[in-house]
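Budget justification aside, the reviewers requested a transparent look at the raw inputs and outputs of the sequence design task funded under Objective 1. We therefore reproduce one unedited record. The lines immediately below are the structure tokens for a 398-residue chain.
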């Protein structure tokens, strides 16, 4: 069957000419052919010029471009090469050779020129989460190449796309192995910078762990000695473990998910910190920060994405402002605040402006010590600024 062709409205070709890989439904003028979910389609400018080739979807992002080169076919070879390139990038940043770390992101969607696909590695297992149906349809070839390019490192590939595919998508897969080695759940824990973590990648949130905070957890560790630390939205305690290991005097970890806190308690034990320095608190963190029980030296705010779409951006900004105002107003003089946003629609500038508004609100002196983002295994496609989704500030509050 001939590849369907989409023609864009005039002037709607600009972002593709800058190699931004999304085509929104509103930009399409006409379609030649009858593409269905996940088909490969060609995108042309109004006057006919070829712009790119990608995966069609009946959604607001109608096409995710995989190639801007008219000569390049999107076939098995294409996906094999793309996965191989993702491995080579991880080798070049040293993460595959790091003896203290066997948790990393292998494919970061647009950041690896594979829009709609995330793959995270936990020991000998890779967890695949497709966000685009067209990408999910390629899971067999992708999984095989993840193993083939891994130089013996990956034995199993597990598909957890049921929860990442669009809500209205009908063919939602159950969680299952695409390739099953003999290592299933053999690995009792995983390693990040030498710290041990229990990770329930089958039932945990996202692929099981928030790998994107790895470098930021190291930074927190470097500042934690002798400090009292409040870790809100703590999940399974990534920041808490680094704080305890680096000599924090006390760590309080707050989350609303009991299953996350159960794993956190196991992680505390696993790393040998079953002492009275740590306390797990099940609470709504938005409420908890309104009236803190202690003057903490360090507070971490790492909430889930408050806005997934531009239409929710305003409410999200109000949420960040409230949360940060509470922390800035109550932290000890000379305290340090680690504050994050992982909403793709909140840019670095908007986030910083929001924190500025919170600081003005509270009326304390606030200084930026560090500006943070995601680590190198979550590369940012320079043509797709949205792939820089994690924003963080380390603030000193006088
Ligand atoms: N900092 C963590 C990742 C945080 S992910 C880490 O390093 O691993 C966001 C967390 O917020 C999740 O664990 C989720 O359960 C929790 N959460 C979501 N809404 C919440 C709320 N209102 N109160 C407390 N925790 C919440």
């Amino acid at each position: 069957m001939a590849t369907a062709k989409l023609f864009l409205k005039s002037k709607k070709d600009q972002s593709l000419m800058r190699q931004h890989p999304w085509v929104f439904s509103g930009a399409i003028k006409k379609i030649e052919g009858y593409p269905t979910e996940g088909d490969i389609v060609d995108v042309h400018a109004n006057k006919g010029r070829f712009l790119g080739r990608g995966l069609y979807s009946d959604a607001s992002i109608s096409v995710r471009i995989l190639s801007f080169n008219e000569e390049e076919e999107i076939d098995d070879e294409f996906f094999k090469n793309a996965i191989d390139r993702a491995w080579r990038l991880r080798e070049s940043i040293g993460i595959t050779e790091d003896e203290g770390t066997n948790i990393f992101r292998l494919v970061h969607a647009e950041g690896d020129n594979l829009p709609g696909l995330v793959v995270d590695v936990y020991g000998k297992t890779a967890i695949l989460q497709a966000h685009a149906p067209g990408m999910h349809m390629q899971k067999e070839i992708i999984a095989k190449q993840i193993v083939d390019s891994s130089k013996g490192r990956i034995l199993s590939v597990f598909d957890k796309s049921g929860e990442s595919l669009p809500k209205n998508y009908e063919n939602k897969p159950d969680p299952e192995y695409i390739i099953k080695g003999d290592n299933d759940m053999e690995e009792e824990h995983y390693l990040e910078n030498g710290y041990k973590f229990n990770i329930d990648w089958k039932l945990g949130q996202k692929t099981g762990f928030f790998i994107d905070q790895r470098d930021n957890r190291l930074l927190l560790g470097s500042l934690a000695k002798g400090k009292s630390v409040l870790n809100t939205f703590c999940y399974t305690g990534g920041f808490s473990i680094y704080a305890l290991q680096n000599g924090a005097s006390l760590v309080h970890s707050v989350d609303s998910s009991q299953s996350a806190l159960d794993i956190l308690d196991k992680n505390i034990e696993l790393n040998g910190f079953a002492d009275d320095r740590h306390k797990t608190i099940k609470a709504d963190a938005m409420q908890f920060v309104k009236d803190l029980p202690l003057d903490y030296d360090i507070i971490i705010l790492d909430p889930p994405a408050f806005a997934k779409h531009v239409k929710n951006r305003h409410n999200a900004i109000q949420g960040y402002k409230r949360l940060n105002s509470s922390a800035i107003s109550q932290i000890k003089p000379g305290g340090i605040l680690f504050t994050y946003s992982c909403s793709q629609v909140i840019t670095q500038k908007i986030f910083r402006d929001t924190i500025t508004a919170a600081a003005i609100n509270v009326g304390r002196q606030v200084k930026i010590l560090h500006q943070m983002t995601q680590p190198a295994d979550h590369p940012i496609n320079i043509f797709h600024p949205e792939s820089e989704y994690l924003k963080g500030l380390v603030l000193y509050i006088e």
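The longest helix spans residues 313-330. The pocket of S-adenosyl-L-homocysteine is lined by residues 205, 210, 213, 233-236, 238-239, 255-257, 260, 284-286, 302-304 (CB under 6 Å). Computational costs for records of this kind are itemized in the attached budget.
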